[in-house]
Design a protein that fits this description.
Two copies of one chain form a homodimer. Chain A is mainly beta. Chain A has three helices and 17 strands. In chain A, the strands form four sheets. Chain A has a seven-stranded antiparallel sheet with strand order 4-3-7-11-12-6-5. Chain A has a three-stranded antiparallel sheet with strand order 2-15-16, with no helix packed on it. A two-stranded antiparallel ribbon of chain A has the order 9-10. In chain A, strand 13 and strand 14 form a beta hairpin. Chain A is globular, with a radius of gyration of 18 Å. The interface between A and B is large, with 113 and 113 residues.
């Protein structure tokens, strides 16, 4: 079918939805982030890209640390709230039960099925955003989210984000084995 | 409940699954990528992080361009195949119907519901990966994927990835309005 041009401000479908945590003005603060991805395999690093005007940025710059927390569906209203209000005017330190790992300045959320504490290793300055790249120094979960020792997405029950329609989406059915279901596909050998 | 430490090589749940395209050795090549995120709002930029040994990397460095293509579920076997074989030994230029937009060296996939052509603006060198940051110069879809002029994830029907269990997942039910469902949540004013 015919391709049509759409807004170049296009997004990934769907985006993961996490809460980024940092100590800002001596208090834990959390913001909702959909622009997040792993960026290095070994050592494990993760990147979050935050608009430059966000309250969280100053805390990450100052403490050189942040956390990435993957929430389950039961937290969706709290997560959305964290995306609606800024730490400049709202104290978000009491919304969750906060804990710390090895880093003393990367606040994590006990209610979240997966929490990663990150040491800032690089910032990439871009026109309207700052990309914070952190090394994952520790990752925390609970036995109830594991199956055969591995994190189980159906137990985590996370949700995803689409923009610009601004909707959240549950995870659906299993769709097959990665690095597996394509094995029947053949192509020309060079 | 009690938190337990898990492998620090932890991942985002779930990751988007896209095909990154580039011209390598004068031919279109496509690789499966789950480490992808928007990284700048204005101008729109997207980042993909590729292990340094991938065949695609040389092409992006040489042409200073790449594409990001969001596949629908009906392409899942072909996408997985692109993740199983390397362009070093397999010619992946014939798997899809390739088209070009304004850039003449960012091959896009006609079968994909959303395609973004990107001009390389920055590379971030990391220990085992290279993060390629591109400005989205054009985005392409079809009328059949739009609802009220916006991309509709249920029509796109993409899939997501989890690691390290290496599974694909469909998108599930709508879970609410982002920047909306948290409005009832109150907190302490500063």
């Amino acid at each position: 079918m015919e391709k049509v041009k759409t807004d170049a401000n296009a997004f990934v479908y769907p985006m993961p939805m996490v809460l980024a945590g940092a100590i800002v003005d001596d208090k834990p603060n959390f913001m909702a982030v959909g622009w997040v991805a792993r960026v290095n395999f070994n050592p494990p690093m993760i990147g979050i890209s935050l608009g430059k005007t966000h309250y969280t940025n100053g805390g990450i710059h100052q403490t050189q640390a942040f956390s990435v927390n993957v929430p389950g569906m039961e937290l969706i209203e709290k997560v959305d709230y964290c995306g609606l209000v800024t730490g400049k005017t709202a104290d978000k330190s009491q919304i969750f039960d906060v804990f710390f790992g090895e880093l003393r300045n990367a606040p994590m959320i006990r209610e979240c099925p997966l929490c990663m504490e990150c040491k800032l290793v690089q910032t990439v300055d871009m026109p309207s955003n700052t990309l914070f790249i952190g090394q994952i120094m520790g990752a925390y979960t609970e036995e109830r989210y594991l199956t055969d020792g591995k994190l189980d997405i159906l137990k985590i029950n996370p949700f995803t984000l689409t923009m610009p329609d601004n909707q959240y989406w549950a995870v659906g059915r299993n769709a097959g084995k990665a690095w597996g279901i394509g094995k029947n596909w053949k192509t020309l050998k060079r």
